[in-house]
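Lecture notes, part 5. Sequence design as translation. It can be helpful to think of inverse folding as translation between two languages: the language of shapes and the language of residues. The source text, in structure tokens, appears below.
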């Protein structure tokens, strides 16, 4: 039993947590290993965090697994990451079943190698009836790509007469994003001590609470997640109002 977990306020849990899982490369290099072994060990943190979210009842967990910009890394690292992705998705099916997890994905999935896309589609359809945690992988994702793509699709619908440009509002715009099915995250966690967003969920993070943790992703434990949630629960979210107005 975790003492930190016990301190969580059950009716104040975020419905959606987003995580920038950073520091795999540094973790491995620090141990004199290849960067890819950091990515491999990082999979265990993914499993721990997904289980923790399921246990406490968080509905949505979005994990930044591969950015649009990450395609520019050395080919051997990109290839190894894609292979790891295929192996992980098939290897973790039992975790998804045991925890009633539904696998989802956001990003420019057409860019993924065919084997990856097939494995992903298979796992998403196999878990589509699960109604526990939505585990949303951001793959070949960048927020600017998503926003531009939404703009293009919306312009097309305007040209087709499907929507009236004068009626476009935040809700309509949001419905064109790849995150349309999910509420905006209340909490964003980034590991590895970096304090930046790196093109992640730019629209959705407008009022998200940001939490930065110095641990490298492969070292991230369930208690680190609970600590982040506890910190979030102590904050006052004002959305532009005054404290007095909230009372
Ligand atoms: C995050 O770890 C995982 C991906 C971006 C795929 P990094 O690979 O960025 O690790 P560092 O930041 O170089 O340590
Ligand atoms: C962000 O990490 C992307 C993922 C975690 C998948 P990066 O390591 O790519 O980000 P930068 O380059 O440090 O901003
Ligand atoms: Mg990094």
């Amino acid at each position: 039993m975790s003492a930190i977990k016990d301190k969580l306020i059950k009716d104040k849990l975020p419905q959606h947590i987003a995580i920038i899982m950073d520091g795999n490369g540094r973790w491995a290099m620090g141990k004199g290993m290849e960067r890819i072994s950091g990515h491999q060990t990082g999979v265990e943190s993914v499993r721990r965090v997904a289980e923790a979210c399921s246990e406490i009842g968080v509905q949505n967990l979005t994990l930044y697994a591969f950015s649009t910009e990450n395609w520019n890394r050395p080919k051997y690292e990109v290839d190894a990451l894609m292979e790891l992705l295929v192996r992980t998705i098939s290897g973790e099916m039992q975790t998804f079943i045991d925890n009633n997890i539904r696998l989802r994905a956001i990003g420019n999935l057409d860019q993924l190698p065919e084997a990856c896309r097939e494995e992903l589609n298979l796992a998403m359809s196999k878990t589509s009836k699960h109604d526990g945690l939505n585990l949303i992988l951001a793959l070949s994702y960048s927020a600017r790509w998503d926003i531009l793509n939404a703009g293009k699709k919306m312009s097309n619908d305007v040209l087709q007469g499907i929507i009236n440009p004068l009626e476009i509002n935040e809700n309509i715009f949001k419905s064109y994003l790849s995150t349309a099915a999910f509420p905006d995250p209340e909490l964003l966690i980034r590991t590895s001590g970096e304090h930046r967003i790196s093109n992640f969920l730019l629209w959705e993070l407008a009022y998200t609470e940001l939490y930065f943790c110095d641990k490298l992703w492969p070292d991230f434990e369930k208690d680190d997640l609970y600590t982040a949630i506890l910190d979030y629960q102590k904050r006052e979210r004002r959305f532009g109002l005054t404290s007095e107005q909230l009372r």
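The translated text above is only one of many valid answers, since several sequences can fold into similar shapes. The beta strands are 16-20, 60-67, 102-106, 134-141, 187-190, 209-212.
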